[in-house]
Design goal:
alpha/beta, 2 domains, single chain, Arc Repressor Mutant, subunit A, 12% strand, Rossmann fold
């Protein structure tokens, strides 16, 4: 489709160079996406409005695509073997509290969503993930003799199982999911797969045909502190796509996009969603199928690497097809073309780069060792006691494994085990001093 909509010409989001006012753009410490990800209708929207907000253009893009995927419903899907993949993506947008501008990206994208379907924005956009039962209650099937209650919110029709869950403090959700007996991680895995949701208890709650998208916001430090290696291996987090977000412009008085622009794009989004809701199986064009087979599939399914990053990005191939489908549907097309697939491949690649930055930064690749390193550095000159080390890892690691971690740490430059005087016998603490000083 044309990049011109109702007379509005697109801008050109850039991550380097200068701002429209001639000043330098903010330095970016994390990865940078390919410009090809700003493709089709979603990319056109972002290119047009990115100069009116400090938000990261890619964070706006994936939020808009996640919302659009929920809006189109369960009908459109791609087949990967016997698995049915709906048009859902779950962005995990991370960045610093002060400069990530995660909230700004949500606000910008949701203006377009509200302009497209205000009822959806009010009734189908929710927050407050706390337990599997809570998600199930939100989506549960209604008995024939049961009256629909609002539960304090203007809820959609009971048969409408579309939900966009926006969690601006996903660290809280992660903490809740770790509580003993909490079924949220398992329920999320089922929701991503598009399976019916149920729980085997006395309530016998069931949710048929759920269609749940999640947009999660977190800081890099919070994620590293709260994630457990068992969660990576268990597959909960490879349902998410991590995206690094950073302030793209310095705007002392950002005013947002003009209302007429938002309205115009909202109307287009509404039209595209309405057309997509009648689509079933989304197929590849001949050219797209050849590109996927000959160029992309092997790279997307490469299992030669190991560790937390590989576990985090294990669903790259499935996500590439889901994203390509979304590019097509939101561009008012029912077939995946070559450009959709290449844009999806680049967006998955940016997510993989973000996963490395989120988990490793300048770290070691060992989630537990990196956690210990950060704790020792955060402890400052007082150091970290052995008791604090034990509390930090709890029962997840055996004593022998904790000793191995400490030994690895002490082999690194700048780390030492030193005595610290106490009222009785001296205690030993782990400390860090910068070798450069």
């Amino acid at each position: 489709m044309s990049d011109q909509i109702d007379g509005f010409l697109p801008g050109n989001p850039m991550y380097d160079g200068v701002q429209p006012d001639g000043k330098p753009r903010p330095d970016r410490e994390g990865p940078t996406p390919s410009p090809l990800v700003f493709h089709g209708f979603p990319g056109t929207v972002v290119r047009r409005i990115e100069s009116t907000t400090e938000a990261d253009p890619v964070a706006i893009l994936v939020t808009l695509m996640a919302a659009g995927g929920v809006m189109v419903g369960r009908g459109p899907h791609v087949r990967i073997g016997d698995d049915r993949h709906p048009a859902l993506i779950w962005p995990l947008i991370y960045g610093n509290t002060s400069t990530g501008r995660k909230g700004s990206s949500r606000s910008t994208a949701m203006r377009i969503v509200r302009a497209a379907d205000e009822i959806f924005a009010v009734r189908n956009v929710v927050s407050g993930l706390s337990s599997g039962e809570g998600l199930l209650e939100e989506l549960r099937d209604q008995d024939d003799d049961e009256e629909g209650g609002s539960g304090g919110r203007d809820r959609p029709d009971p048969d409408d199982k579309r939900r966009l869950v926006v969690e601006s403090e996903y660290a809280v959700t992660m903490a809740r999911g770790k509580r003993e007996g909490n079924t949220l991680p398992g329920m999320l895995r089922q929701a991503w797969d598009g399976d019916h949701l149920s729980v085997m208890n006395r309530s016998k709650l069931k949710a048929s045909d759920p269609h749940v998208g999640i947009v999660a916001h977190i800081t890099q430090r919070e994620f590293r502190a709260k994630v457990q290696d068992s969660e990576m291996a268990g597959g909960t987090y490879n349902r998410f796509l991590p995206f690094y977000s950073h302030r793209n412009l310095m705007l002392p008085h950002p005013v947002g996009a003009e209302e007429q622009i938002v309205t115009a794009y909202g109307i287009k989004l509404r039209e595209h969603v309405a057309a997509a809701r009648s689509v079933g199986l989304v197929r590849f064009s001949t050219a797209a199928s050849k590109v996927y087979t000959d160029e992309l599939y092997e790279a997307l399914t490469d299992d030669s690497s190991a560790g937390p990053v590989a576990e985090f990005t294990a669903r790259a191939a499935a996500y590439c097809q889901r994203i390509a489908m979304l590019y097509a549907l939101l561009d008012h097309r029912a077939q995946i073309e070559e450009d959709d697939l290449r844009a999806a491949y680049d967006l998955v690649g940016y997510s993989q780069d973000s996963a490395r930055h989120l988990l490793l930064g300048s770290g070691t690749g060992d989630v537990n060792l990196d956690k210990l390193i950060r704790a020792v550095r955060d402890a400052g000159p007082d150091g970290l006691t052995q008791t604090q080390v034990t509390r930090m890892f709890g029962n997840r690691l055996k004593a022998a494994d904790k000793n191995v971690l400490v030994s690895k740490l002490l082999e690194m430059d700048g780390y030492a085990m030193l005595p610290r005087p106490t009222g009785g016998a001296s205690a030993k603490v782990l400390v860090y001093s910068d070798p450069a000083n």
